[in-house]
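Thread: Substrate-binding domain-containing protein, structure

OP (GT): Posting the sequence first so everyone is looking at the same thing. Length is 326 residues per the record. Can we get the structure tokens written out before standup tomorrow? I want them in the notebook alongside the other entries.
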Amino acid sequence: MATLEDVAKKAGCSIATASRALGARGPVSDGVKGRVRKAAAELGYRHGTAGPGRGGRRPLIGVLIPSITNPVFAASLSQIQNRMQVGGHAVVLAQSNYDPAQEADAIEALLSERPTGLILTLCNAEHSVPQADRLPPTVLLNNLPTSIFPAAVTVDNREAGRLITRQLIDHGHRRILFVSGNFAASDRAFLRFEGYQSALAAAGVDSLPALQIPFIGSYEQLDISIAVAEHRPTAIIASNDLLACGVIGALRRQGLSVPQDVSVAGFDGIAMGQLMTPPLTTIEMPDSSMGAVAASLLLDMAERGAAPRHLQVGFTLKPGGTVRSV
């Protein structure tokens, strides 16, 4: 029995394009549509009897994210799904839970679905991926490109870290503590920390050692009292907004007020931080648009043979009420 893969091969197009030409949603030119339908007729393929895709399945792409509970990745995923629906692809999801060991298993699970492409947010893109030699077209999301993964959609996390630190310096802060998840679990957090160090060095101010805590788990009982007592910071930068909210809660449990006693800033620009009182000072990342751009880049590579590219998206500093001048 002929499959959609056979039809696509005969028509000289991708499986997703063949699926769209035979009835799935999404744009297809009249010329391609006629060629696909002619190939289907010649092969005796009936669309819908076994379902579109490889071996009778709808084509799909795999997405790996660190955690579905973080609104940052949920926003990107939503746009990836929207773009792939228009492109005639299903989406299958896996999580690494910020664990490099789990990451390899998650990628293996995605490969078992025989995806036409992958969008990956890795703990550290510089570390080897065991399956690298058998991956389909792949786009990194939030990780800088590497020799193995030249296609990536990113923001300049190092510059974002420098900018938010400069904002605090301009408000008179000199004892600034950087609180982060484990750097081994997020190269994005480490790049933000490097930006923090760069801004302080340029201002002739010594940086403090980063306080690293696990990403996974509840921030409701976060305890930073030892670091606060040791370093007496006037400001704290958290490596993401969720952690910044946890830091604010921890400071309040110590009887400290934000920003009167300690200023706090974060990264991402999630709604939670903007709805709190006072609103969080943060770097707003374009998470939704990054997901859409990554999906479009992957479709260009997988369907049209486009060359891998590194696309960098801008970010915005959003001053809030959690930072005051000293």
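GT: Both are above now. Quick notes for whoever picks this up: The CA atoms of residues 26 and 86 lie 5 Å apart. Confidence is low (pLDDT under 50) at residues 49-55.
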